[in-house]
């Protein structure tokens, strides 16, 4: 989401004469787009600001001015603390105010020394004001369809930093997707903190869910692949499961965080489902789309988590079999209910559990990658490889796939879907041979 938001900010600022540069040294403005999800992410902002202070000074010494801004969820949650700990920061603004960025920057430019803080949750719909993705680069793009979250998991800051759940209207999403497709994009990843809670107003006056949206997106000429992230198990409805069965463009690769395998902990987390609910959901997904692969997020050391609870997590992981996962030590976040719990788990126990869980998850990921060797899979070509004549693309499971052959490279534009046989796994990359007869011919403008 922050990658997408940063692109939108760059586009908004292009309108007032800014262009992106690769490094902060000497820049007229530096925006840190920040994440507040765990303490480590938030603390990074302050060390980064320490470094920027020197660059800002260097620029001032050379007679120039560098505007330093902090955006994103740390700005939203810690606006005043940022001002206190890093007084050289000129602007602090939260994720709900990006559409006001050009106006804010113009004000900051006019008045050196004035501090601008904007962490409102405006009543107006920010989706209405954001520039849509015009400058699409490459074959795969993000598309925000939903923002915020009403679930209030007891460990999570998102409902506080990103605000209430809101969906973009269907017409706006389809228009943006068409613009992306026209710019050569073939794969869209629909984004939202709770993306499958999507319930956008449809052109027919009814609310559309994510399944219906996916069906409409699949009709757009040029769109070959659709993904979405991140989902909540409670919002995976029958229609979305049916879409996984019916819509070939919907990739068989789903990030479906479960967080824990213990019902006691799931309840304390306010996840609103049990481990068995999750197992049944996975069974239904696999019945609908047998080649679907799953990834998840896990938290170890949530307050009150016992050895037995943790064993339940390992058991669930063993049963489901993941193609990949993110796992984290529980990090108490200010303002969230779980942070106040008196049964915090000692750091050493968290470390040990995380290591055990990651070992199992890595073995599963490795087994999944190995099992793709020998399979025939479509590969979406994204770019030229490092070796002459080499192409690099991605499998439906987001695995990087390398294809060799000068003839092939000359013949295969970026953005082509090539049916391949996967020959080999080297580290995290797959190597494949095209099954030429089934290669899709399509020129991408
Ligand atoms: N501590 C650790 N992990 C967290 N996550 C969210 N909040 C916390 C926290 N306080 C993890 C969850 C979520 C992912 C994006 O980050 O697993 O799914
Ligand atoms: Fe946070 Fe996701 Fe729970 Fe919402 S559903 S509160 S974003 S973990």
TrEMBL record:
InterPro entries, A to Z: Elp3/MiaA/NifB-like_rSAM (IPR006638), Methylthiotransferase (IPR005839), Methylthiotransferase_CS (IPR020612), Methylthiotransferase_N (IPR013848), Methylthiotransferase_N_sf (IPR038135), MiaB_methiolase (IPR006463), rSAM (IPR007197), rSAM_horseshoe (IPR023404)
Domain MTTase N-terminal: 1-110
Domain Radical SAM core: residue ranges: 135-370
MF terms in GO: 4 iron, 4 sulfur cluster binding; metal ion binding; tRNA-2-methylthio-N(6)-dimethylallyladenosine(37) synthase activity
EC annotation from Swiss-Prot or TrEMBL: 2.8.4.3
Compartments, record wording: Cytoplasm
SUPFAM superfamilies: Radical SAM enzymes
Pfam families xrefs: Radical_SAM, TRAM, UPF0004
Annotated ranges, domain TRAM: 370-436
Catalysed reaction, written as an equation: N(6)-dimethylallyladenosine(37) in tRNA + (sulfur carrier)-SH + AH2 + 2 S-adenosyl-L-methionine = 2-methylsulfanyl-N(6)-dimethylallyladenosine(37) in tRNA + (sulfur carrier)-H + 5'-deoxyadenosine + L-methionine + A + S-adenosyl-L-homocysteine + 2 H(+)
Cofactor note (record): Binds 2 [4Fe-4S] clusters. One cluster is coordinated with 3 cysteines and an exchangeable S-adenosyl-L-methionine.
A single GO cellular-component term on record: cytosol
Binding of [4Fe-4S] cluster, residues: 149, 153, 156
Keyword flag GTP-binding: no
Keywords: 4Fe-4S, Cytoplasm, Iron, Iron-sulfur, Metal-binding, S-adenosyl-L-methionine, Transferase, tRNA processing
Cofactor(s) the protein needs: [4Fe-4S] cluster
Chain's role: Catalyzes the methylthiolation of N6-(dimethylallyl)adenosine (i(6)A), leading to the formation of 2-methylthio-N6-(dimethylallyl)adenosine (ms(2)i(6)A) at position 37 in tRNAs that read codons beginning with uridine.
Annotated family: Belongs to the methylthiotransferase family. MiaB subfamily.
Complex and partners: Monomer.
NCBIfam families given in the database record: miaB-methiolase, MiaB/RimO family radical SAM methylthiotransferase
Protein name: tRNA-2-methylthio-N(6)-dimethylallyladenosine synthase
Organism (species): Marivibrio halodurans
């Amino acid at each position: 989401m922050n990658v997408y938001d940063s692109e939108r900010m760059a586009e908004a600022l292009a309108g007032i004469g800014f262009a992106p540069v690769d490094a902060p040294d000497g820049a007229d403005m530096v925006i840190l787009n920040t994440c507040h999800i765990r303490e480590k992410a938030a603390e990074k902002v302050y060390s980064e600001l320490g470094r920027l202070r020197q660059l800002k000074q260097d620029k001032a010494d050379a007679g120039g001015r560098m505007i330093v801004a902090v955006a994103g969820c740390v700005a939203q949650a810690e606006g005043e603390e940022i001002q206190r700990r890093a007084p050289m920061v000129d602007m602090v603004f939260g994720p709900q105010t990006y559409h006001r960025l050009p106006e804010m920057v113009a004000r900051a430019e006019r008045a050196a020394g004035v501090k601008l803080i904007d962490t409102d949750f405006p009543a107006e719909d920010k989706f209405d004001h954001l520039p849509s993705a015009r400058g699409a680069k490459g074959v795969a793009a993000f598309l925000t369809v939903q923002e915020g979250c009403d679930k209030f998991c007891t460990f999570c800051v998102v409902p506080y930093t990103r605000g209430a759940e809101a969906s973009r209207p269907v017409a706006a999403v389809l228009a943006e997707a068409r613009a992306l497709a026209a710019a050569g994009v073939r794969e869209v990843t629909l984004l939202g903190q709770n993306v499958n809670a999507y319930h956008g107003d449809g052109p027919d006056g009814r609310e559309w869910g994510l399944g219906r949206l996916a069906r409409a997106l699949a009709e757009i000429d040029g769109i070959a692949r659709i993904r979405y992230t991140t989902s909540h198990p409670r919002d995976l409805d029958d229609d979305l499961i049916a879409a996984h069965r019916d819509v070939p463009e919907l990739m068989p690769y789903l990030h479906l965080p479960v967080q824990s395998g213990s019902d006691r902990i799931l309840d304390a987390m306010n996840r609103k489902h049990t481990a068995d609910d999750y197992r049944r959901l996975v069974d239904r997904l696999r019945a609908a789309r047998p080649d679907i692969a799953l990834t998840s997020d896990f938290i170890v050391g949530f307050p009150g988590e016992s050895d037995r609870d943790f064993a339940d997590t390992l058991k669930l992981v063993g049963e489901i079999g993941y193609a990949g996962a993110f796992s984290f030590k529980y990090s108490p976040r200010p303002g969230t209910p779980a942070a106040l719990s008196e049964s915090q788990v000692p750091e050493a126990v968290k470390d040990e559990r995380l290591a055990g869980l990651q070992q199992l998850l890595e073995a599963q990921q490795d087994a999944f990658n190995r099992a793709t060797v020998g399979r025939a899979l479509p590969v979406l070509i994204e770019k030229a490889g490092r070796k002459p004549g080499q192409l690099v693309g991605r499998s439906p499971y987001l695995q990087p796939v390398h294809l060799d052959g000068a003839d092939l490279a000359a013949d295969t534009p970026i953005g082509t879907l090539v049916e391949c046989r996967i020959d080999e796994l080297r580290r995290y990359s797959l190597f494949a041979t095209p099954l030429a007869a089934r290669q899709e011919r399509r020129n991408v403008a």
